[in-house]
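Entry:
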Amino acid sequence: MKAALVGAGTATAGGTPPGSPVLLHQARRSTGRERGPEAVVEGILDFAADLRAYGERHLGEPAAAAGVAVPGIVDEARGIAVYAANLGWTDVPLRDLLADRLGGIPVALGHDVRTGGLAEGRIGAGQGADRFLFVPLGTGIAGAIGIDGRVEAGAHGFAGEIGHIVVRPGGTPCPCGQRGCLERFASAAAVSEAWAAACGDPQADAADCAKAVASGDPNAVRVWQDAVDALADGLVTALTLLDPRTLIVGGGLAEAGETLFTPLRDAVRRRVTFQKLPAIVPAALGDSAGCLGAGLLAWDLLETPSPAAPAATDRPTTPDPSEVTT
């Protein structure tokens, strides 16, 4: 688990506007998932309470709101973590549990990828774009659809699952039940598996493949290009449907830099016909995207007045620190 206290910063030379969120304090803890889902939930609650106490001791005031981002299926409107296979939980009312533990402050619950996408869209690589698509390439592949400063969750919370676009019909089985899903060919995990088989080293991973591509290894080039072609097929399907202005690619595979982005831009360009080609750029926030995005969720709660609350313009221009846990 990653957590942070987030507050308003000042303008930077890189173009960050004044008042954008900055990380004031960061911490990490194990999820403790080997002890079961109840232990994971209790760990989140304890972590959040400890972080709030830290802010009160060291920053002079407790957090004014909290945001939490979790994996799996998330009902953001009701504040329920519906299902997460890797954490073992089902229908956890996480928003209410956190609000109770934190003394009744407002709490927002979000999906981890959509929350990271929110940060990339507002203050990261998609800053200024009215429409963006954020695609992190990690163990799997997910997506966040950005529209005018917010991220679309969909009618049932499933929007953005680009990793389960079928790009190779009849291909490798996917745990989702389909065959040939994008993430079975173009995720960091898929590249690691393909390169380990190609080079005969079961410990080899996607980063090793990228290094071998840079050195001109023909087997690595083949494995890498297969992944890039699959990724381009999936992305062109997505941009045909969504017409984003900016396509942000992040996650472990994107750490290969231009070893990924040069052939990917070329592959996408070759595939588009009538579609408008978006800017294809690397994610800017890296490991901090989740915490910053959770901070933005909390921030939005403070800037959205309740019926009895004063308008946002009557509030202080610099928000109180917001506590986030991801």
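The chain has a mean pLDDT of 88.
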